[in-house]
Amino acid sequence: MKNPARAASAVLTYGFVGLMAFLSVFPFIWMVLGATNSSIDIIKGRLAPGETLAVNVAKFFTQVNVPLVFWNSAKIAILATLLTLAVSSLAGYGFEMFRSRRRDGLYRAMLLTLMIPFAALMIPLFIMMGKAGLINTHIAVVLPTIGSAFIVFYFRQSTKAFPSELRDAAKVDGLKEWQIFLYIYVPVMRSTYAAAFIIVFMTAWNNYLWPLIVLQSNETKTITLVISSLASAYYPDYGVVMVGTILATLPTLAVFFFMQRQFVQGMLGSVK
């Protein structure tokens, strides 16, 4: 006979986990159902499949230059991700592998920048981009995201698990530091790169506030800005907004599910 206390504990545990899972998935379910309903039905709170999905999709593709805004978002996200991984992994590798008196002080100063809210940096960044003539360009969106203190911290912590014997053996074989990094460190830390790729890509794809400030023409706007403009219209069509939100979510879902295993390994500090 099962222990009643253990059975009750299992019921409560699974019930709590199930409730949290439902609360996590429910917004996506509501979004999908909303895409099939008219704006009036969504306002009424209808939670059943409707018959206006084709109409909402047609309206969205009519009102939005979908290939252009997705290209803008993809270009910004991919550029920001690749540059951030390159710069942050080099910085994390350097902070861990090279020892000096000022290393820890510089590292602590960098971590302190995490406490500065982005709202305090917007005006100085905007002035800098204006003087550089980069307003209304995608470069202005990408540049401030390259030096990510959090990703540098993440790479340094992961580098602590990197076998120092590999680096020592490579030096004995005559490899230079850049060769050690490129041919040994990067392949060994690929799960860390995968986890960082997902984090940075999702952040860059969903970035809203800074692109809203620096991207001023319709030809440069991203999918998040377009959806926001649709939702803030005088008479917003929420069915069309739901369609756009679903389409904007698909790339991040695809990246996460495609690299899910590597993401878990990277977050657990797996080194191969």
TrEMBL record:
Residues 70-259 form the ABC transmembrane type-1 domain. InterPro entries: MetI-like, MetI-like_sf. Its main location: membrane. The keyword Transmembrane helix applies. Keywords: Cell membrane, Membrane, Transmembrane, Transmembrane helix, Transport. The keyword Magnesium does not apply. It is found in: Cell membrane. It is a multi-pass membrane protein. The chain crosses the membrane at residues 12-33, 76-95, 107-129, 135-155, 180-205, 238-259. Belongs to the binding-protein-dependent transport system permease family. PANTHER family: ABC TRANSPORTER PERMEASE PROTEIN MG189-RELATED-RELATED, ARABINOOLIGOSACCHARIDES TRANSPORT SYSTEM PERMEASE PROTEIN ARAQ. This is Lactose/L-arabinose transport system permease protein. It comes from Sinorhizobium kostiense.
